[in-house]
């Protein structure tokens, strides 16, 4: 059986008169890079035509990750791509939503007028 010996040193005054050096770590929180995550989440939930909102959300998350590790250039690149995708998702979402509503109204009016025509021809 091996016995271990532990030595405990008593803390006291420093042994030498050398000046004490301090280390300062500056953590830079660069909030100048927007990651557009809220806009991407909105587009993912409400304007997700062609899955552009989801892709924009993925790039926003990548931008936030790059910003957290200090890679500002990478964060700006991903944020720029997320912004472009969000713009396209919003524009396509608005146009396609309005277009779908207009097409549905025209289809409803056509079906209603056809139903009235059939009723008149049958004598109702």
Automatic annotation (TrEMBL):
Gene Ontology terms, cellular component aspect? Answer: plasma membrane
> Pfam families attached here?
CD225
UniProt keyword list: Membrane, Transmembrane, Transmembrane helix
Q: Name one GO biological process term.
A: negative regulation of viral genome replication
Q: What is its main location?
A: membrane
- Where does the record say this protein resides? Membrane
The residues that cross the membrane are: 37-59, 87-115
Name the domain of life.
Eukaryota
Family recorded in the similarity comment: Belongs to the CD225/Dispanin family.
PANTHER family linked: INTERFERON INDUCIBLE TRANSMEMBRANE PROTEIN, INTERFERON-INDUCED TRANSMEMBRANE PROTEIN 3
Q: What is this protein called?
A: Interferon-induced transmembrane protein 1
């Amino acid at each position: 059986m091996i016995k271990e010996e532990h030595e405990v040193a008593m803390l006291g005054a420093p042994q030498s008169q050398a000046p004490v050096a301090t280390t300062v770590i500056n953590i830079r929180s660069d909030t100048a890079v927007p990651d557009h995550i809220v806009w991407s989440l909105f587009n993912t939930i409400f304007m997700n035509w062609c899955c552009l909102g989801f892709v924009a959300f993925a790039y926003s998350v990548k931008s936030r990750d790059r910003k957290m590790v200090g890679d500002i250039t990478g964060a700006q690149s991903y944020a720029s791509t997320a912004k472009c995708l969000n713009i396209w998702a919003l524009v396509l979402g608005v146009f396609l939503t309005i277009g779908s509503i207009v097409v549905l109204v025209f289809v409803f009016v056509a079906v209603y007028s056809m139903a009235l025509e059939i009723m008149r021809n049958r004598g109702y």
